[in-house]
Amino acid sequence: MQSFETLSQQFATRFQTDHFPAAPATLYDPNRYFLKLGGKRVRPVGVLMGNELFDTIVDDAWAVATAVELFHNFTLIHDDIMDAAPLRRGQPTVHEQWGPSTALLAGDVMLVKAYEYLNGISAKYIVPINRLFNNTAREVCEGQQLDMDFEKHDAVGLEQYLHMINLKTSVLLAAALRMGAILGGAGERNQNLLYEFGRKLGLAFQVQDDYLDAFGNPEKFGKQVGGDIKSNKKTFLLIHALETASGSDKEELASLLAGNAPDKVERVLAIFHACGVDAWARELKDRYLQEALTHLEDIAVLSKRKEPLRELALYLIHREA
Amino acid sequence: MQSFETLSQQFATRFQTDHFPAAPATLYDPNRYFLKLGGKRVRPVGVLMGNELFDTIVDDAWAVATAVELFHNFTLIHDDIMDAAPLRRGQPTVHEQWGPSTALLAGDVMLVKAYEYLNGISAKYIVPINRLFNNTAREVCEGQQLDMDFEKHDAVGLEQYLHMINLKTSVLLAAALRMGAILGGAGERNQNLLYEFGRKLGLAFQVQDDYLDAFGNPEKFGKQVGGDIKSNKKTFLLIHALETASGSDKEELASLLAGNAPDKVERVLAIFHACGVDAWARELKDRYLQEALTHLEDIAVLSKRKEPLRELALYLIHREA
Fold first, then answer.
1. ipTM score of the complex?
2. Pairing of strands A91-92, B87-88
3. Does the residue A18 lie in any domain?
4. Domain end point (choices B87, B102, B132)
């Protein structure tokens, strides 16, 4: 049983290989550039850990992990176009550097490359792995579309937001773990439990992400605090505040959202505190984390095999605020 | 042995099914809209005809044909974004109707759907069909990138242009036919010959397309003649003219390309005639068509089985100018 860190380093080393042909460089250099920007590689390591929970890591797991990471990078390149984001991990995005048309095509070909890796695994796993991969890919697209739809809606309920976040961010981690479980020979029940572990962990992670954007320590969080508030982004926090604030808080929140007051962040945070949004979010995060860990406990393998996944959950959720 | 028309109608009927879930409608309605715009469905029928050249059409051929047509539509949706095209088949494009972000995602999910169909075919064909599909998908992206690169270059040679056209438009028809051949149980040699038939036919078709844009009868061609000339589009004709014009023709052509004279189309056409570009293009088209037909003749099946493919070639290339 290997830790997240060990597997992440191993994956990073293997992933450094050149995944693309030399020519045309105008298409593939952007892909090479983007993959070099790095990342925590949580999802591909999820494949490896899902596999190792049940058996020794098989060769196919590395190919599937690579496909999952390429898929994730395809979504990032295309999301950056849609969000008109200038930076990714502190560096210019692909569309910023090479224009939106090349970014669009670079993303497309990144997705095709993911499928090429999937087509190289043992014949008996191709159908089930591709089925899960395709379903998940479709769900991630749906989640991104819902996220864009919500930007145009005034009222987004907590249920709707949860549904969107589940599709946009949770199912890929869940599916990565489950693909590993399939390759490890896990039965259907264990596969489902591991999938649910990943899904709940993803939700806990998103609550935490929303929380840190508002209440995090800027030095440790690594990005500007209050960005979501400034841009009126619908988050767990804002949605809960809009659902629970009353009287003058409710009115002030509405008027703050309608404008760009210089003290907007401080005043919205004050309302969040007054509504108890911070405590609520911490509890929600803990609940999802607890549910995730319960699913993990229920998986029918020796408890000590689960240790790396338990550590991963705590590492992802208890990162420094 | 069924004709292109018969198979095209059968395919159109089957393809009318709803390929996408109901929700989110904001994502899938654009896909449904785009598929309803229609088209000649040449590529999916290529799969069916490639199959029937060797054997009775199998169920898998319909699934692969569907995947090929969904892939083609994915490229059209994304190409329309890149070209900022307002219309497709006389109707607003997806990005024009729903914005570029939704068009981007609608294309992405169309591609994923294509892979879903491929994952449903008989296990023994999944790997070879996906390998060819993936290679082709990558090549089509490369062709589109080269096409965009060429817009920025002053000098594009005939060889380079051929390479681009081959990737952007020929390999998909070639691969469609070959996928059908694989499903029909064809051997490697016959597969290669059919692939080359499709590739050469694609090149002949593109020469013809470039030719008609300049020399076609506007009433029969169905679109404005001279569009490529007005936009300085690199075509077989312009590239050949730039390579062969000399003296005053060469100078005049350069100055016409640098400006937007009201009589630009007429004057460029006059230079084309002076350089013999029209006769050259007709000969080039005939040569590719002849090479295609020779490859078809070399395929080791009874000649009468080839009749529908021969007819398809003549139908595609001798369409009314």
1. 0.96
2. unpaired
3. yes
4. B132
Q: Whose CA is closest to A127, among B20, B127, B180?
A: B127
The answer to whether A145 and B27 are in contact (CB under 8 A) is: yes
CA–CA distance, B36 with B71 (Å, rounded to integer): 15
CB B173 within 8 A of CB B41: no
Does some domain include residue B86?
yes
Could you tell me which chain B residue has the CA closest to the CA of A129?
B119
CB-side neighbour CA atoms (13 Å) of B262: 0
A151 touches chain B (CB under 8 A): no
Q: Which residue has the tokens 């590529």?
A: B43
- Please count the CA atoms within 13 angstroms of the CA of A58 that sit on its side-chain side: 17
Written as six digits, the tokens of A48 are 């490896």
A29 shares contact with chain B (CB less than 8 Å): no
* CATH assignment at residue A277: 1.10.600.10
Residues from chain B contacting residue A23 (CB–CB below 8 Å) = 142
CB-CB contact of A216 with A225 (8 Å): yes
Q: What is the DSSP letter of B57?
A: P
Residue B62, token pair as written in the block: 């319909």
Number of domains in chain B: 2
Domain residues for the domain of B230 are 187-321
Task: Read off the amino acid at residue A63.
Answer: A
pLDDT in tens, chain B (321 residues): 899 999 999 999 999 999 999 999 999 999 999 999 999 999 999 999 999 999 999 999 999 999 999 999 999 999 999 999 999 999 999 999 999 999 999 999 999 999 999 999 999 999 999 999 999 999 999 999 999 999 998 789 999 999 999 999 999 999 999 999 999 999 999 999 999 999 999 999 999 999 999 998 877 766 678 989 999 999 999 999 999 999 999 999 999 999 999 999 999 999 999 999 999 999 999 999 999 999 999 999 999 999 999 999 999 998 654
